[in-house]
């Protein structure tokens, strides 16, 4: 790679169109005030490698700065049409992972958990792993061993996770951490449209007249996506936010509905009730393009605004306001995220949003449609090609005989050798507790922080006879394993991800991995070879895997066969389905009113609201809800090691309403039926008085997920992270935040330790703080 030849051109001042620029912006821009326009490679011998961020589902374009020695040392924003020179705090710090002193550079191993982990050779770690796999499977059957993958892996690697489990291990037990993220939306999309992806590209947000965001804290979880929100607002679009908290974006909304967590289905069905009662439905669209409308309409009659007001704890008038704003808009869009998906009726919550969009005809048009905001970088691609318990590559069903035959032919195995569907990630932990799954390989996940009800998770993993983990840092989960394989970070390999638009983008290799580190692909292929399945895993690298993935997806709904690395480099990304190399991709679905069901229609679904799984009582009268914060990502295994991000947000807190009598920084004990922990109080009027919010990026004893409930949606098997019964109490001492684990012989990176000991919550709360930090 060479420095961008157009860098000088980009430094030319481009005056803004005054009709599009907010007041004062033109003068600021023309004076050269936007730093991104001045950023360019100016170090002699420096190379800029175009790639994408490793974190969320926006997948911002960036350049990694590589010095003459071949080492990544910095980052520049890239003028990619996803992010247009913008990066969030995580994005601008992501490069620091690559050469971080906490990196694992040798396999770690112990033969029993009574021993300490020690560095060993690759041969010893691989041989021990293979011998344990064989021992467990010979004594207890193939299904006694399981695999858990991750949705931050490249799609090539997620494809390999599923194939490795089913072909090399011959086990049905494979799932992935996207089970904690996207599966409720996926389930709803499949039921309604028979396709699992967002219907519209991000750029359509700029064309809409009304934007509804439900359970989506865009400002913190998808910061760069806010440019599309503000672009729509600059055009005069109405903004509606549904969230129990007044997030940064909710604070700017025309309508903010601070409903009680766990009541979304009742709310959206009541909004539909008003749309019907006021004659705002698109009857011609419904007649031509939907099934099940009369049943949905009859059910909505039972949810007048007064009933929603009682269930949701909001004014009935807000239901009417939302209905009129959304239905009367010439073009409206609805997006949701984990806030409505992390529930025991997560699939049904999503279906109520689909019902609303279909009833108003806001589907499949520029500026009108529906979609999900993906949490992990490859949250979309990670569930498409076979590491999900019930799916084969191309989104094929593992229970469908024709689908099984097709994949067995590509993989060169007999259909009788292909296992049936496995169980979900949380269910696998329960099976580990019961001794049904006795061995496990984890790839790019950290369930000790990310799964609910930590005591159950810890017990499940401790009960296993053997556990191996792939990672580039020693996560809390890896620190509990028998074997830890040191693998590459995203900048040390190449591959593709599919972002929240279902746009497939190409990540490029920027530097060689440290000595002793291997790619996830190499490790899986080498394990398969030693298990006797090497002929099925003769891949030299990502390109070879991608070629097979393309063939395996050909002719399916999730068709990648027309996507090549070369086309991705040339175009900046292609939305699937893309069935041929001359096909432009499919950025917008349903433009002709046709879905992927056999009848081509949207299958609307009746939804009845039901209460959350964890009942309220006098001992637990409040709601605990959880979520992300802008500085950290998922389990924090990466971001809790980056000094600037730790300094910005050193520890979790309990966000509480001032009516509970706490002052900022005072210890507040949050108690659920799973246990209790003590956090510093962040006192703000931006949260409902009956609700407590805790960010979840930290391990026990400061873990939100030590308190959450492991109840699952019966369809998607997603845990109910967003609502459980709790109470708050005054306490004496705040629980300590543990340092991230490090490999034997290493010391904790000092930059991440100083701020971590700060007992106070962040100095800049998301909401309107009522106490001074002192």
TrEMBL record:
Gene3D superfamilies listed in its UniProt record: 2.40.40.20, 3.40.50.740, ADC-like domains, Dimethylsulfoxide Reductase, domain 2
Superkingdom of origin organism: Bacteria
InterPro entries given in the database record: Asp_de-COase-like_dom_sf, MoPterin_dinucl-bd_dom, Mopterin_OxRdtase, Mopterin_OxRdtase_4Fe-4S_dom, Prok_molybdopt-oxidoreductase
One Pfam entry name: Molydop_binding
Biased composition (Basic and acidic residues): 1-12
Protein species of origin: Streptomyces salyersiae
SUPFAM superfamilies noted in UniProt: ADC-like (SSF50692), Formate dehydrogenase/DMSO reductase, domains 1-3 (SSF53706)
Protein name listed in UniProt: Molybdopterin oxidoreductase family protein
Residues covered by region (Disordered): 1-33, 737-774
Domain 4Fe-4S Mo/W bis-MGD-type: 46-102
